[in-house]
Amino acid sequence: MGFGSGWHWIIVLVIVLLLFGNRLPTMMRSLGQGVTEFKKGIEGGKKEGEDEEEDEEEEEEVAPKKKKKKKVDVTENDEE
Question: Would the pTM count as exceeding 0.70?
Answer without folding.
Answer: no
